[in-house]
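During the second year of the project, the team shifted from modelling isolated chains to modelling whole assemblies. The rationale, set out in the original proposal, was that interfaces cannot be judged from single-chain predictions alone. As a representative example for this report, we include one of the complexes processed in the last quarter. Its constituent sequences, exactly as entered into the pipeline, are reproduced here:
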Amino acid sequence: MIKAVNLQKDFGSLRVLKGITTEIKQGEAVCIIGPSGSGKSTFLRCLNLLEQPTAGQIFIEGVEVTNHKLIDVNQVRVEVGMVFQRFNLFPHMTALQNITLAPMKVRGLSLEEAEERAYQLLDKVGLRDKADEYPDNLSGGQQQRIAIARALAMRPKAMLFDEPTSALDPEMIKEVLDVMKDLVNEGMTTVVVTHEMGFAREAADRVLFIDDGLIIEEGAPDQVFSHPQSDRTKSFLSKIL
Amino acid sequence: MDYTWSWDVVFSSLPVLAQGAWMTIRLTCIAVGLGILIGTFLGMGRVSSVKIIFALSSSYVHFIRGTPLLVQLFFIYYALPIVLGRHVPPFAAAIVAMSLNSAAYVAEIVRAGIQSIDRGQMEAARSLGMTYQQAMLYIIIPQTFKRIVPPLGNEFIAMLKDSSLVSTIALEELVRKGQIIYGRTYKSFEVWTAVALFFLLMTLPITALVNYTERRMKAGD
Ligand SMILES: Nc1ncnc2c1ncn2[C@@H]1O[C@H](COP(=O)(O)OP(=O)(O)O)[C@@H](O)[C@H]1O
Ligand SMILES: [Mg+2]
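Output from the structure prediction step:
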C-alpha cells in the first residue's frame, strides 16, 4: 500500500537517503532499526511528505504522491498518520481539542461528530477521564497515547511512528506499546522506528535495518535479530541488545 | 541666576497637561493597536517561505527601522501632501506615521514569537493534513500570544515616549502642551519636571504590568 522506489534525500550537500526501495503491504507492520543519524526519521518523514524527496518515487495505493502535478500534498498527509518522539501535542488545547481540531478543520466534521469520534478513541487509548486536561498536566505516556488518538481521528490508512517511546520514562513505555500492538492486531498498516526489540518481535511482520541511508538487511524479526546476515547488522545489534 | 520659583504655574496648568497626556495616550493606543494589526501580518511575512512575501515584508521592516520616526513623520506631513495635492491633518499624519512605524517593530516581535515555537508544532499540524495557513491560525499564532505580551508592552512604552515627536507638527500632546505653558510662563524647570512626571505616571504602571506578566510566564512554563 506504500511503496518507495529508489528514494533519495539530500540536505544541502549531505546525502541522507541513498536509494531506498521497499514496499509496505496493506495491514503489514514494519519496524525500522538502525544507528542514530542513519536516516530513519528522514525516511519516515518522506513517506508522508513532511520532507520532499530529492529523487525517487513514493506510491500510496498505487498513486505516485511524489508527482505534484497529480496530487495535493495535504491530501496525502491526511491518509498517513504520524506520531512523533516528542509527542508534539498542542499545549494550548485540551486533550479532546487536540483530537477534534483536524477532523473538523480538514475533514469537515461537525463538533458533535468530531467529539463522538474523539471519545471513542480516548476509550481506545484508555484516557477518557483525561479529555479536558491540558498536555502539561499529563504524563509522557499519556501524552503519547493522546497523540496516537489525535492521528487516528483522521482515520488514516497507515500510521507512522518515529521512536514513539524513546522520550518516555521506562515505566510508561508499556502503555504506549500496548496501544500500538492493538492497532497492529486490528490490521492497521504500521511503520515504526523503534529499538524496542520486544515489540518488534511480537508485533512486526518485518524488520528493516537501515544504516547510512540504505536498507542493509530486512526480514522477519526472528531472522534479523537472531540470524543477522550482514556484519553491520551484527555489530549494531551487539551494541543495543 | 535670577530665577523665581513658581510651582503654582504647574498646579494651575494641570488640566492643560492632563489634556496633553490624554492626547498622548490616545495617539499611542491607536498607533500601537494598528501596529499590532499590520505587524502581525508583516511578522508572518518575515517567516514566509514565499520569496516575494518575505522580501517585501523584510524590506519594509528594514526601511522603517533604519530611518528615524521624525523623518517618517515629516515625510507624511510635509512631503506626501505634494504628491496627494492636499493637506494632511496633523492628527491623521501622526497616526499614520506612528502606526506604520510601530508595525515594523511589532513585526519583529511577532517573527521572534513565531520562531520561538517548537518546530514540532508545525510538523504535527501539517502531518494531520492542515494547510500552512490553518497551522499558523490554529496552532502557531495562538501560542505566540502569551510570549509576545511582554515585548509588546515594551513597544507600547517606547511608542508612548516617541509620540512626543509629533509635537513638531503642532499636535497638542503632552510635550507640546509643556511648550505652550512654558511660552506663557517661562518656568522651564517646573514645567518640564511636571511633564516628566506625567510621562512616568503613564509608563510606570505599564512597566509594572510587563514585569508581572514576565514573572508569571516564568512561573508558568
Ligand atoms: N532538516 C535537516 N536539515 C539538515 N540535515 C538534516 C535534517 N534532518 C536530518 N538531517 C541530517 O540527516 C541525517 C539523518 O537524520 P535522521 O533521519 O534524523 O536520522 P535518524 O532518525 O536515523 O537518527 C543526520 O545526519 C541529520 O543531521
Ligand atoms: Mg530519528
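The two ends of chain B are 58 Å apart (CA to CA). The interface with chain A takes residues 118, 120-121, 123-131, 134, 138-139, 142-143, 221 of chain B (CB under 8 Å).
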